[in-house]
Amino acid sequence: MKYASPRGTRDILPEESALWQQIEKTCQQVFALYNYREIRTPLFESTELFSRSIGKTTDIVSKEMYTFTDRGDRSLTLRPEETAPVVRAALENNLIQRDQLLKLYYIGPMFRYERPQAGRYRQFYQAGVEAFGSADPTLDAEIVIMAWQIFEKLGLLDLEVDINSVGDEKCRPQYVEKLKAYFKDQEKALCEDCRVRLQVNPLRILDCKEAGCQKVIDKAPASADNLCPECKEHFEKVVGWLGKSGIKYKINHRLVRGLDYYTRTTFEVVSKQLGAQNAVCGGGRYDTLVEELGGKPTPAAGFAIGMDRLVEVLKSTGHLPAGRHGRTQSTEIGIYIATLGEEARKKGFEILNDLRQLGISADMDYIGKSLKSQLKAADQEKARFTLILGEEEIKSGLAKLKNMQTTKQEEVPCDARIIAAKLQLPK
After folding, report:
1. DSSP secondary structure letter of residue 5
2. What dotted CATH number matches 14-171+227-317?
3. What pTM did the predictor assign?
4. Half-sphere exposure of residue 106, counting CA atoms within 13 Å on the CB side?
5. Which of 13, 106, 207, 348 could form an SS bridge with 339, CB 3.0 to 4.6 Å?
């Protein structure tokens, strides 16, 4: 092979696409239940949008972004995440209104220069939500419950929610100072990156995955123990709602997520199927981001589901779409038209087009296979019915319609509407 997909990317082939479609459809159905509407933003944005929102000291901005200069000498970046673009779009299009709750969702590809591993790619896919206009802890609980419901609908039960509070602009500065003092005493045990983080943003050290740093992090001051009364009350209400909903959760004092814009609630839904990198969903509250990007003070919360990791979990647990070759019922062929002879082929093509106009999925041979090979192809395509047309059928005006599940066969007029009525297929 002269060409191959770039490192960290891959092709999603037809056999697996059915699983992706199932996940997307499930997400869309649940998002609609909670009154979220879809938004689609460009694949690339101004680099400053991400460096300002995510934080210059985060690994995403400092190491992982795909940034380039266009022909107009503008610095652009392939989106590494979608919250900042959604905020930008909401502000630019005046979607955020006072005393109104705005609920949006998205599904699409993101890009980060990371080390490829199970469920982690340089082009990866996310489905997520963003809600603007409410500081109510009930909203925090709602988005966690919504994510959990998606996983339940997909058949995943061996999950857990890790949750924490990182405080707000009132109490976090004091907590950061405590972290700085603690890590200063442990500086020799920190990795080179964390020594830099110690100087610019000690909170980012908590997100380090290096084994040596993890030992130091385990004994660091916990953010939940340093919350102001307002943040503490907010967090207690969030976990209280989760407890009432029956969701399995664990308070993780080290959970800060990899982006600087989070305030108060942070959470991850984790799976035991993925090893160390086990989060399939993450999110929380970001009450200052809208103002940071030029809007009025607006509380907000959201999450993103890592669809690539979710696919890996579904594969490992055997929760795949029904049908052979990864097909779902919606991707099975309704009818396959097998023909013998030129006149039969012409009539078959005419019926094929008429059936499709009636909303029935149909296909036929375009290679010149024998009738026997066409019938075999119909079986391979999981066609529910096969229509057989030869010279005799053309003369009599009656084709043979075979039910591939029951093997029952009958003669039907060579008329698409009559054939469609016989099929009894969902349109």
Report:
1. P
2. 3.30.930.10
3. 0.85
4. 25
5. 348
